Amino acid sequence: MKKTFQTIGVALLLSAICLYTNGCTSSHETSKKQVQSVYQCPMDCEAGKTYKEPGSCAVCGMPIELVKEE
Fold first, then answer.
1. 6: CB partners within 8 A, 6+ apart
2. CB burial of residue 57 (10 Å; 0-12, 13-18, 19+)
3. Cα separation of 63 and 57, whole Å?
4. Which residue has the higher pLDDT, 8 or 21?
5. How far is the CA of 38 from the CAs of 19, 48, 54, in angstroms?
6. What's the CA angle centered on 60, arms 54 and 65, to 5 degrees?
7. What is the number of other CB atoms lying within 10 angstroms of the CB of residue 45?
8. Contact between residue 48 and residue 40 where contact means Cβ atoms under 8 Å apart
9. Do 49 and 33 contact (CB within 8 A), yes or no?
10. Residue 37 is inside which H or E element, if any?
11. What is the rounded distance in angstroms from the CA atom of residue 59 to the CA atom of residue 69?
12. At a CB cut-off of 8 Å and minimum separation 6, what does 52 contact?
């Protein structure tokens, strides 16, 4: 019975450490998702083409805008 409680205690401790330090998910993946931005022409001149940086559309010259990700 004592070993059962010790096993449960160790499991809870490891779970708490994992949640606290975000050790269960890769921090690289989460930071990559946060940094990634997508820009697109508001007139959609290039049929859905997206850019990684702001600038102007090559077809109509309008400034490309940040696309809201769902």
1. none
2. buried
3. 6
4. 8
5. 30, 11, 9
6. 25
7. 15
8. yes
9. no
10. none
11. 24
12. 37, 38, 39
- Tokens of residue 27, six digits: 């921090």
Instruction: Look up residue 23 and give its two tokens.
Output: 């050790």
DSSP 63: B
Continuous H helices in the chain: 2-21, 27-35
Burial pattern 18-38, b for ≥16 Cβ within 10 A else e, equals eeeeeeeeeeeeeeeeeeeee
Give me the pLDDT at residue 25, please. 58
pLDDT tens readout for residues 11-66: 777 777 766 666 555 555 555 555 578 999 888 888 888 888 888 888 898 899 88
Report the candidate in 46, 42, 41, 38 with the shortest Cα–Cα distance to residue 68.
38
The pLDDT value recorded for residue 70 is 44
